[in-house]
Amino acid sequence: MNLFPKLVVNDARRAIEFYTTAFGVKESELFETPDGKIVNVRLVLGDLDFTLKDEDSVDAAPGLDGPPVIINLEAPDPDAVGARMEAGGATVIFPVEDHPYGRMGRLRDPFGHVWIVRGTDGG
């Protein structure tokens, strides 16, 4: 069994570029319509996978009311990940800083998805 999220975005090609730069994902498969809309792309992040697609009449990207899910990403250097996300157009909701429960921050990517970036060392 395997379980992974599928993100719906308003510009899948730009999202692939953003996640590649911010997180270092690798693309493992891509399917698109004849007019170039991405219906599924699998992105690999270490031993984790997630997929994404362009929004369409069936699946909408997150709106102003917020996303239905918050994604947690543990990373050895959350400051560097947060900086790469910001450089790629993410908005800081809470800056990466020390908390009693670890070093973490919360950012909204350019496609409306909210990410909690947390240090893997728990501190």
From TrEMBL:
UniProt-listed Gene3D superfamilies: 3.30.720.110, 3.30.720.120
Pfam families: Glyoxalase
Residue intervals of the VOC domain: 1-120
InterPro entries per the UniProt record, alphabetical: Glyas_Bleomycin-R_OHBP_Dase (IPR029068), Glyas_Fos-R_dOase_dom (IPR004360), VOC_core (IPR037523)
Protein name as catalogued: PhnB protein
Organism: Actinomadura coerulea
Upper classification of the organism: Bacteria, Bacillati, Actinomycetota, Actinomycetes, Streptosporangiales
